[in-house]
Specification:
2 domains, 139 residues, mainly alpha, 0% strand
């Protein structure tokens, strides 16, 4: 299903783009949108970083452009839209991959500087850090 980009004010910056260029932006957003809507699976306690958030970011960009909304080139418009939809894509991770952060050197530093997290991990029954602690580390 194609994500509706026509209602984004930034989409107007692509009016000078070729059909192929607009189709490429559409395909990339269509790839990102369902992934963004799954970020909540990785970080259920975070504020939403879904397609609504991406749309809001794009609209805030348009607000910042203000009366200069027509100034971006098609490439600049495409980059703005794609950055709105891809800036949080790295937040999607499989739970098992997320738990692997304990192998990172910074994990020990985190536990050293956050005694409450250290105690939570030390008291974990299954020797895996609780997801809430991993979320705190990832923040």
């Amino acid at each position: 299903m194609a994500y509706d980009l026509n209602s984004l004010r930034l989409w107007s910056a692509l009016k000078g783009a070729t059909d192929s260029q607009r189709a490429t932006v559409q395909q990339l957003v269509d790839f990102a949108a369902p992934l963004l809507d799954r970020v909540i699976e990785t970080f259920p306690t975070y504020t939403l970083h879904d397609t609504t958030h991406a749309r809001n970011v794009a609209e805030l960009m348009a607000d910042l452009l203000g009366t200069r909304l027509a100034d971006p080139t098609p490439l600049e418009g495409a980059l703005l839209i794609l950055s709105a939809f891809f800036h949080d894509i790295g937040m999607l991770s499989a739970h098992d991959d997320l738990i692997n952060v304990i192998a990172e050197p910074e994990w020990d530093d985190f536990l050293t500087t956050h005694p409450e997290a250290f105690l939570t991990v030390a008291n974990a029954a299954d020797q895996k850090p609780p997801l809430a602690t991993v979320e705190q580390y990832c923040r």
